Input
Amino acid sequence: MNREQYAEMLRTISEVHKAGGDIHKCIKEYRKKYKYVYIYNDSIFKMLFGNPNNMRMTASFLNAILKLDGGDCIDNLTFVNPAVDGAFVKTTTSDIVAENKRLERIVLEVQHVEDETYSDRLVFYTAKHTIASKPRGDSYWLRDLNLISLQMFNGFPNSKNYRHSIRLKNQDNEEFFKKQTVTLVEIPKFLKGDYASDESLLAQWLRVIDGLNNEIPVAVPEESMLGLLQKKAELSIFTEEFLVSEAMAMSDRQYEMYVEKKHARKEGLEEGRAEGRAEGRAEGRAEGLAEGANTKAREMAKKMLQKNKPLEEIIEFTELSETEVLSIKASLA
Output
């Protein structure tokens, strides 16, 4: 199922649970309707790729993203605590953090929302994990760090590439520091672009995941890591307890941020781009939707702040900027 369908399922489960209805029957109906979960949901993604039992599958996915082959391939991973504390800065919690046999750190993030501080956060995460993985002692020697961002938006809209490898370089494009690499994967660009001839392992992974999200599984060998993902992503595998827990954790406002606001934005854009049709009405409607959504987003941010939710989570669910959230936090002090 796709993102909206997954959110709709959780909302229905939540409503049935609150009403004291038959949860088993409700989930059973969804299992008849959908075979697969939405892979890029935070909790689902962590359960699939952050699970030690699925280490070989995760290693294969990381090898594809980082373009590692032969002796450079990751063949063993150790998952570590994704939360990185700091004495003078807030705790940072990434989606998945692992280390290879050389203790080189790999951080895997799924980013649904682009905001004005997005690149700042990636640099901040890179710095935090670089320090967290540093060997003890007075030496400045650092271990390699790969930070991967799977993005549901395009960070480089003018580039034909959907995968970007970023390192520190000088004006002559010579690498200054090779131990820090930020890899961005622009998923919408790949899915909507002209990449039919791309038979790279990463392209195969992205097509298989998209097939599952759209209930159209791609034919792959059952014994392959791609085939394993298809088995692990079946909705029937996820327990009723897990689904109810996820449903009850998703507030009405979070549902709106997942589904209703996205549809409103898409609808407004379609109306605005229609050649000369109802231009003024579309603009007025968009402004009204934006104003109402912003008010609700700020209310949601207040509630999440009062529950001490992480700043990154608040920004993702409300789509407010970091500056706006910090301003709201200051008003609550």
